[in-house]
Amino acid sequence: MKKVLIITYYWPPSGGGGVQRWLKFAKYLPEFGWEPLIYTPENPDFPIQDASLLKDVSNELEVIKLPIWEPYQLFEKISGKKTPAQGLVSSNKKKSWFTNLVLWIRGNFFIPDPRRFWVKPSVKFLKDIVESNDIKTIVTTGPPHSIHLIGLGLKKKMNIRWVADFRDPWSKWDMLDSFKLSSLAKSKHKKLELNVLKNADRVLTVSDTWAKEFETIYTRPYDVITNGYDEEDFGILDKKGSENYFVISHFGLINNFRNPRNFWKALKEMTVRRKIKVKLYGVIEQNIQDQIRSDDKLNKMIEIKPSISHEEVIKAYKQSDLLLLLLNNSKNAEGHIPGKLFEYLASNRPILSIGSTEGDVANILFKTSAGRFYKTTDDLAEPLEEIINNGWDLKRGDIKKFSRKSLTSELVNKVLEDS
Question: From 73, 130, 262, 273, which residue has the greatest number of CB atoms within 10 Å?
């Protein structure tokens, strides 16, 4: 069996969508003749934890860990506050001078990101691991993009095959705008990114749009393998929502990049025969929470709930009648495919997408006939009334190609085996 070393910052008990991509690849790779080894930090700073994902980590899987030092720990010690969550650094809420200073330092001094201090010790440590295990192929997955610098360092020292996997863009990532980068910092990001794109044997990303964006930075072939859903997570989901309420659910972050103002407006305006319950699971920007709670009608309909485990998310799909998909209102929106989209598809519930009506998400929804997509400026009262009162006649297309096992087969045949 061939061996592949997967270098990733996110690994269970880390939660969120980013961890599942290579967790699921590692789960199914042995079925296709590949033995994965995982390299991950021993003491990472996870924003979300989800112990339910540990069930997908085989007892036979070797997980190698090395301690990491992150400057976030210093910030929290000095300030006595938690570091601002990545998805909320773009908040419109006024930040303290200290928080603004920390964000500026993060963006201009810790390039490409605060995990950069793990790069040199990892390259030194992994050189022996690669040699002793006769590993011919390594994979780096980012963000954080400093993980790719570990691959770059190993590639320069050893005769190995390196696959760089981009779950998000790098120099064109919209999150970078929140850190007020200087022209020098932007130049450093672009230089590091270019070195990775030039030296990796294969470059992989999650959407066609982002592959095209990378082509504008450096011309070479780019592979696209989307995220997906794991059939074993779902089993049988029957068509059963709440008997008393029509339940609309959203899972994940809602911030100022994806505040669905037209959806809130539609909830207040439409006339329907059934009672409505909107359940929002996850991190919600404070000013959006305030907006909801200050409106009597919205406050009665909407339940704001904390993040829940992946296992509980699957159960919540079953109790939903409609799944809400909110897309970023940002420059990367057309290429951003939320990982939950594929689980929405597997749940067999209708999907209401709000955001860009162009790009990869709209293309997937159109081809699978799994839902409808609207702009943030569209009037949603009528389509919401239609589905609540009458339902949507959605003739679903085949979604098997998005199963984690099918995607792993594609990874092996298109990327790993192609030497």
Answer: 130
Cis peptide before 84 (omega within 30 of 0): no
- pLDDT digits (tens), the chain, 419 positions: 999 999 999 999 998 888 999 999 999 999 999 999 999 999 998 878 899 999 999 999 999 999 999 886 666 655 555 555 554 444 455 667 677 777 888 888 899 999 999 999 999 999 999 999 999 999 999 999 999 999 999 999 999 999 999 999 999 887 787 788 889 999 999 999 999 999 999 999 999 999 999 999 999 999 999 999 999 998 765 555 556 789 999 999 998 888 999 999 999 998 777 889 999 999 999 999 999 999 999 999 999 999 999 999 999 998 999 999 999 877 777 888 999 999 999 998 999 999 988 889 999 999 999 999 999 999 999 999 989 988 887 777 889 999 999 999 999 999 998 65
Those residues with Cβ within 8 angstroms of residue 41's Cβ, 6 or more apart along the chain or in another chain: 9, 65, 66, 67, 68, 115, 118
**Domain definitions of the chain by residue range:** 2-228+404-416, 231-399
CA angle (19, 360, 358) in 5-degree steps: 140
Instruction: Tokens for 287, please give them.
Output: 């000013």
- Any idea what the Cα angle at residue 123 is, between residues 181 and 57, rounded to 5°? 95
Query: How far, in Å, CA of 363 to CA of 374, rounded?
Result: 13
Q: Which residues make beta-bridge pairs with 279?
A: 249, 303
Length of the chain (residues): 419
Q: Which fold has domain 2-228+404-416?
A: Rossmann fold (3.40.50)
Check: CB of residue 179 under 8 Å from CB of residue 171. no
Residue written as token pair 């519930």: 349
- The answer to whether the 2-228+404-416 and 231-399 domains have the same CATH topology is yes
The answer to whether 162 touches 142, Cβ cutoff 8 Å, is: no
CA distances (Å), origin 187, targets 114, 183, 203:
17, 6, 21
Given a contact cutoff of 8 angstroms between Cβ atoms, the answer to whether 355 and 258 are in contact is yes
| Whether CATH 3.40.50.2000 fits 231-399 | yes
